[in-house]
Amino acid sequence: MAAKTQSDLSRPPGGRHAFIVDDEPQVRAFVSKAFVGAGFIPHEFSRVPEVEAALTLFKPEVIVLDLSLGGTDAVEMMRSLAASRFAGKILLVSGRDATTLDEVRKIGERRGLAMLPSLRKPFRLQELRARLAEVIEPTSVVASGSDLEAALQNNWLELWYQPKIDLKSMAVCGAEALIRLRHPKRGIIQPAAFLPPLGDPLYQPLTDFVVRRSLADWSTFAAWPSVGGAWSTNRLAINVPASILQNQDFVNNVRRHLPSHPQFPGLIVEITEDEAIGDPEFAREIAVQLKLYNIHVSIDDFGAGYSLLARLDELPFAELKLDRSFVNGCSTDERKRAMCQAVVDLAQRSRLTTVAEGVENDEDLQTLIAMRYDMAQGFFLAQPMVSGDFGKMLSSRRGASLRSPRRSMPK
Question: What is the CATH classification number for the domain harbouring 278?
Fold first, then answer.
């Protein structure tokens, strides 16, 4: 399927549409090819007046927008889109520094536009596909407790695994379990579209499912002949709301499903920094109790509130996961780089493992390696995958460092 240009816009065909607005023909072609592969009809533009004319014919689900567009720019374009109440998503791309990209993205957010995480040029096909995954989800899905309730009753829930990479060996050293819903008609649905508000009673059976399935999957991975002992030292991580941790049933449920494997390394339970801040004494109590069963607490989205930086020595946590907002662009943004350094220095003094989440390019990865972060995860390293694919990846890379060919876009 060829990309549409301004001359092709006399009759709007059906299907899902995407606009690519960039003054570099090779960039437009590169991005258009990715959209075609995702089932979209792409339209390429180099000037804003062409885009405005096309918007009278089409309702694109996403607009890929360069910051600089000859006689105009992305800010001006977004003002126009906001005034017309554009309902699609916007992906900013540019060779400018990460700070500028982030500032322009926030302008779009303040004007009520749905902004995807930006991409710095030159970006890779894998990074672009990760952004497309956020657009491909069916728009008809509405978050409600009934979606989750139906999923629990009909066995539609799955755990996908995003590998965690040891930054010394570049080998897989664990994984985070992520919930997905495989609807018989809608396909794969992301958690934001079906998880109810925090505190909903459905989180109890959901957490029971996550615990049971993740521990069963760990045993499956460890039993693979080609994985075996190499996997038995690696931990899986699950996300658990603080409201569920406070329930004694959680500990009982975990105890009931702990693997009998003699080399089971334990489980990691991730709670967010704001949950730990809300009741630090409770966080300490639950962390100590879970430690009795070889279950360790990780602080997710760390740094977003800064509130725990001075208290790490007092709290029995095992791991810090630095919030992605500091990781993305840390190679070029001095403020983000300083925060990354402060966190890793403090964690090392407190003997905590450090994980950088949301790694999206090689420049940021190399910066984190130089800072001596222990682990990292993100789309640049590996995307979330179904358990079978994760097991195959473990088998194919046993004892070897991560070598994932990444295709770059034209510069």
Answer: 3.20.20.450
Q: Which domain holds residue 304?
A: 145-396
Q: Which distant-in-sequence residues (6+ apart) come within 8 Å of 47 by Cβ?
A: 69, 70
In 3D space, the residue among 194, 155, 195, 160 whose CA is nearest the CA of residue 177 turns out to be 160
Q: Answer left, alpha or beta for residue 96, where phi above 0 means left and psi between -120 and 50 means alpha.
A: beta
pLDDT per residue over 290-335, tens digit each?
888 889 989 887 765 545 555 556 667 889 999 888 898 899 999 9
User: Strand, coil or helix: what is 336?
Assistant: helix
Note the residue count of the chain. Answer: 411
Please indicate, yes or no, whether residues 31 and 69 belong to a single structural domain of this protein.
yes
State which H helix or E strand residue 174 sits in. strand 172-183
Enter the pTM of the model: 0.66
Domain contains 237: yes
| The last residue of a domain, from among 136, 165, 192 | 136
Condensed to tens digits (0 to 9), the pLDDT of residues 123-144 reads 888 788 888 887 765 444 444 5
Residue 338 token pair: 């300083």
For 304-318, 341-355, 365-379, 397-411, which range has the lowest pLDDT when averaged over its residues? 397-411
- Nearest 5°: CA angle at 192, between 190 and 195? 100
**Separation between Cα atoms, residue 79 and residue 334, nearest integer Å:** 29
**Token representation of residue 281:** 């004494």
Question: What does the pLDDT look like over 81-107, one tens digit per residue?
Answer: 887 888 889 999 998 888 889 889 888
Residues in CB range of 74: below 8 A, 6 or more apart:
65, 66, 67, 68, 92, 94, 104
